[in-house]
Design brief:
3 domains, Rossmann fold, Argininosuccinate synthetase, chain A, domain 2, 413 residues, 5-stranded parallel beta sheet
């Protein structure tokens, strides 16, 4: 009896080929696990492909709500955006898929799990490290990095074995989609000089076809988590899906990025993330009302560390637990609403209010009702500037007639 392996199955080219290859080259009985993180392609067609490739079975798990609750929204609260650009949609999905792979392998008594990641990408790292953290007893097979088929060869392999796949030689893009975003690579995108052709995009309208008038949406948050649109309380999946459709119709969320992969190469990626772009901006603006200057400054550093951690596949680590505890603490008072204008590819916050806002109109206003004690300013400035004055007199010698203060920028002269 052949050993059983559980394959993370997307229904696309790489995993359809992997299903057959694991039987022919490695002698496994292959069970396919398809995880729905949103925007899943045709499930029945995927089942058909798994059957065509000889799988002993296939399960489809609806993990959309868990994906948002346990992965996406914590990253949103952290402000995690890789290299200031990428909202980490694909990266956030991999640890959840890895967990479900391990769970299914133990349920079936499988000895191994597999994924279709290539040896050049980041996903192999995310899968392998997550699986080792959660199921160290399981063997891991990276099918694409072991069979070493390029995209043209994989398409030919599928055709030889009677497996129908989406990709063709005329349309060689590799895509990944979930509720938080869509990624596209390969084909003509590998030349970073070329503008992405319009057929790359699926969720967002080109600017020429976006509405002439802006749309406004009010996004409600509770403790850093988005919970409502325009005053209507919504479940997480419905909220993100609605915002994806609304923001995408206004051309919001197109990202063309040359990023630094963990494996040491630069890669040109196209992302679409309408809801993510709008929510990240709204959350950032709400925090501007509810965090102190020191909290906001330090949280910027944490956000970068958090983004790197996600991108580099280190979700199931003690370091993540520590960072997550800090982020969760910062969100205690991030409750309120942000009004966002969606127009011609931009999501701009134009209004914000918070239940426990640190913004005081009475202190900020220059009009009647001003409660700021301006008489206190002179004493504050004197004490704040005292070290500068002392050093100037003792060391910099900038008393009248002692030299040109502009020369401070040219040491040694």
């Amino acid at each position: 009896m052949a050993p059983t392996i559980v394959l993370a199955f997307s229904g696309g080219l790489d995993t359809s080929v992997a299903t057959r290859w694991l039987q022919e080259a490695r002698g496994y009985d292959v069970f396919c696990l398809m995880v729905d993180l949103g925007r899943l392609p045709d499930v029945e067609l995927a089942r058909e492909r798994a059957t065509q490739a000889g799988a002993i079975g296939i399960d489809v798990v609806d993990a959309r709500a868990d994906f948002l609750r346990y992965f996406v929204f914590p990253a949103l609260a952290a402000g995690a955006v890789y290299e200031g650009t990428y909202p980490l949609a694909t990266a956030l999905g991999r640890p959840l898929i890895a967990k479900l792979l391990v769970d299914k392998a133990r349920e079936l008594g499988a000895t191994a799990v597999a994924h279709g990641c290539t040896g050049k990408g980041n996903d192999q790292v995310r899968f392998d490290i997550s699986i080792r953290a959660l199921g160290p007893e399981l063997e891991i097979v990276g099918t694409a990095r072991e069979n070493k088929l390029n995209r043209d060869e994989a398409i030919a392999y599928a055709e030889r074995h009677g497996i129908a796949v989406r990709q063709t030689l005329a349309s060689p893009y590799s895509t990944d989609e979930n509720l938080w975003g869509r990624s596209v690579e390969a084909g003509v995108l590998e030349d970073p000089w070329l503008e992405p052709p319009e057929d790359v995009y699926a969720w967002t309208q080109p600017l020429a076809r976006t509405p002439a008038e802006p749309a406004y949406v009010e996004i409600g948050f509770v403790a850093g988590v988005p919970v409502a649109l325009d005053g209507e309380r919504l479940a997480a999946v419905e909220l993100v899906e609605r915002l994806n459709a609304l923001a995408g119709a206004h051309g919001i969320g197109r990202i063309d990025h040359v990023e630094n992969r963990l494996v040491g190469i630069k890669s040109r990626e196209i992302y679409e993330a309408p809801a993510a772009v709008a929510l990240i901006e709204a959350h950032r603006v709400l925090e501007s009302l509810t965090l102190t200057k020191q909290q906001a400054r330090f949280k910027e550093r944490v956000a970068q560390e958090y983004a790197d951690l996600i991108y580099n596949g280190l979700w199931f680590t003690a370091h993540h637990q520590d960072l997550a505890a800090y982020v969760q603490s910062t969100q205690r008072h991030v409750t309120g609403e942000v009004r966002v204008r969606l127009h011609h590819g931009t999501a701009v916050a134009v209004g914000r209010r918070a239940d426990r806002s640190l913004y005081s109109h009475a202190l900020a206003t220059y009009s009647e009702g001003d409660q700021f004690d301006q008489d206190a300013a002179r004493g504050f400035i004197k004490l704040w500037g005292l070290p500068v004055e002392v050093q100037a007199r003792a060391q910099l010698q900038l008393d009248p007639g002692s030299g040109d203060p502009l020369q401070l920028g040219r040491p040694g002269e």
